[in-house]
Write a structure and sequence with these properties.
The chain has about 400 residues and is α+β, with helices and mostly antiparallel strands. About 30% of the residues lie in helices and about 25% in strands. Strands 1, 2, 3, 6, 7, 8, 15, 16 and 17 form a 9-stranded mixed sheet that branches. A 5-stranded antiparallel sheet has the order 11-13-9-14-20. A 4-stranded antiparallel sheet has the order 4-5-19-18. The protein starts with a helix and ends with a strand. The model has no long low-confidence stretch (mean pLDDT about 95). The structure holds zinc ion. Zinc ion binds next to helix 4.
Length: about 400
């Protein structure tokens, strides 16, 4: 096996589990070659992934979710299950982004950073574990879960991760391989998307003082929204909540005073903020002739800094970090699929390799970080299996929350 110089430069002797011949860089390139921004590409990519796992003596199967495959693979048995969570879908990219290429430092291509690079490293980890398990029982179970719809922004009845959780494909701790530059994301903001319908009074454009301009009124309401108390909050991990006026429509003609305006606002609140408080404050905007409707809600993610799995993961990540780099616990502005596990009381963090440009035209991941990531996961899993008993049975499984995806009025 010929390694890229950046892979070869990372010392492997600090990792107790021997690396198999699986090459995370080569595999990442294969995965990037599938345009998995659409169902056909996702199915082809998952077929390939399934074959790869079976070829490495790893138990793997898929189940169908509205025509898309959800992949579940496991290695080992024991009192503790760690879930490695990945998604095989990507956001659409340019044609050339599906032709991966490497230079001295980076692997380029759609999904290299979000998150086929991490996925390939997780697959390699599974191969490493399978090899170790063939020699002596692993003592824990490691589950690799690959979903087909993490990037899909269309409303769906049920998503891959949610379906997997409902089927009991869970564990005691979850690592989502979303890009974090080898830091560990322990919080994610909650989502509360609202639609604000504003009424005005139509009039001739030449005499606007005879009407009420719904667009101007909407602007005032949006300004008031940004001044609400919840919008001023900050916390250890966040300077502020996120408020984005993503869509606005209103007005027919330039010479008419618009009598209607609709704004769609994407609100990401802090994990410490009770959603009911945010909702209540938003309700104060519902003045006469103004309606606020909840479009979508997702709870925030929050894992305790003292969680024992988290501490092992951080220590393991530090063990393989670049010299002089401190692995930090960070808060993430975006949401992630880990919330489906957190809703069940299962701690879930984000941890992925180093790169930049995800969802953009110049997406890339550093080749060295893929190897560091693989080693960090292996060291973490080795630490878990060294003493699994205190880690077992910590999860107090909670029933899942009801669906919150449908629009409903806040007033
Ligand atoms: Zn992602």
């Amino acid at each position: 096996m010929t390694l890229h110089p950046q892979q070869a430069a990372i010392p492997v002797d600090t990792c107790a589990i021997t690396l198999s011949a699986a090459d995370e860089l080569q595999l990442a390139q294969r995965l990037i070659g599938f345009d998995s921004s659409h169902p056909e590409g996702i199915r082809a990519c998952t077929d390939f992934a399934l074959g790869w796992l079976e070829g490495h003596e790893i138990r793997a199967r898929t189940f169908d979710l509205e025509g898309l495959p959800v992949l579940d693979a496991t290695v080992g048995e024991g009192p503790v299950t760690v879930v490695l969570h990945a998604h095989l879908d990507v956001v659409p990219g340019k044609k050339e982004q599906y032709i991966p290429h490497v230079d001295d430092e980076f692997l380029w291509g759609r999904g290299s950073y979000d998150m086929k690079g991490a996925t390939a490293a997780m697959f390699a980890v599974m191969a490493d574990l399978a090899l170790a398990h063939a020699a002596a029982p692993l003592g824990i179970r490691v589950r690799l879960l690959c979903v087909p719809d993490e990037e899909d922004d269309k409303p769906k009845d049920i998503r891959g991760t949610e379906a997997a959780v409902q089927r009991g494909l869970i564990g005691d701790f979850v690592v989502c391989g979303e890009p974090t530059d080898l830091h560990v994301g322990i919080q994610a903001k909650g989502v509360l998307d609202v639609r604000i319908d504003v009424e005005g009074r139509g009039a001739h454009g030449a005499t606007p003082w005879l009407g009420v301009n719904a667009i101007e009124r909407a602007m005032d309401i949006f300004d008031a929204l940004k001044r609400l108390p919840f919008a001023q909050a900050s916390s250890r991990f966040y300077e502020r909540p996120s408020i984005n006026l993503g869509r606005i429509s209103g007005g027919d003609r330039i010479n008419q005073v618009p009598d209607k305006c609709t704004m769609d606002v994407d609100i990401r609140f802090l994990p410490e903020q009770p959603v009911e408080q945010v909702r209540e404050e938003l309700m104060s905007l519902a003045l006469p002739g103004c309606r606020v409707t909840e479009m979508f809600r997702r709870p925030p993610a929050k894992v305790s800094v003292s969680d024992p799995f988290l501490q092992l993961l951080r220590t393991s990540a530090q063990l393989h970090a670049q010299p002089g780099t401190e692995v930090e616990l960070v808060g993430r502005d975006g949401t992630n699929d880990g919330t489906y596990f957190l809703q069940r009381g299962i701690p879930s963090v984000e941890f992925g390799p180093t790169g930049s440009g995800h969802h953009g035209p110049k997406e890339k991941v550093t080749i060295a970080s893929l190897r560091q990531y693989r080693l960090a996961l292996l060291s973490f899993l080795d630490a878990v299996r060294a003493d699994p008993e205190p880690l077992a049975g910590r999860v107090q499984h909670r029933p899942q929350d009801e669906h919150r995806d449908g629009p409903r009025s806040l007033v």
